Amino acid sequence: MAKGFDCSTPLTTQTAAAFVRDGYLFVARYLVPSGYKALTKGEAELISNAGLQIVSVYETTANRALGGRSAGLADGAAAVQVAQQVGQPEGSCIYFAVDFDATSAQMPTVIAYIQAASEATPQYTTGVYGSYAVMEAVKQAGACSRFWQTYAWSGGKKSTFLNLYQYLNDVPVNGIQIDHDESYGSEGWWNTLAAPEPPTYALSAKDANAIIPFLAAGYEATSSAPARAEFHRLANELRKYSGQPEQ
Questions:
Q1: Are strands 146-150 and 164-173 parallel, antiparallel or unpaired?
Q2: What digits encode the pLDDT tens for the residues 155-173?
Q3: Are 8 and 30 in contact (CB under 8 A)?
Q4: Global pTM?
């Protein structure tokens, strides 16, 4: 487990060094086109030189995910453009924020937003930030591969498959307001000093997609609900182990 934080305040050489001295290993910053909280190339370089890893999160407004698929496609395209400008290497992760208490009625729209953002960011892995309910729903839908839960709106529940967890908000540290986070591996973080290792999968997408039609044929050939569920599960296992979204 690694100690980290997220903040809307850009870091300086001095503040980044102070957080490193305090034992922090990563910082989450905003990968947005403009505004006071936007990560810049210069900041990414000074954060990297200080010895911190960077977690990229895209958030323009808290409830942007309610824009659904069209918003996800637009935000994904914008996120890729900014990522390239600031020097984020391909293969690392961009998290998209669902920064509100999403209801069950809103969840299909939220899922459509994350799925579209994932489609629009093929050069990067895709993650979601949000509540326990968002984590569970997006994971079940197979809309992305990285998960950053906040304790907010989560009712004390915590998903079991998280990469990052935000457990305390609005704390003054080293002269700025931060939120506290911890990480559990495969976060998709990055720095400007070295490119991440490309993800490896047990099965190639080409081979998986050659097998899946045979499972689809079996699915269509039976009317048994348990058998159909098993064909569907096996197809999703192939997708998962070849690095593809589940369906």
A1: parallel
A2: 999 999 999 999 999 999 9
A3: yes
A4: 0.79
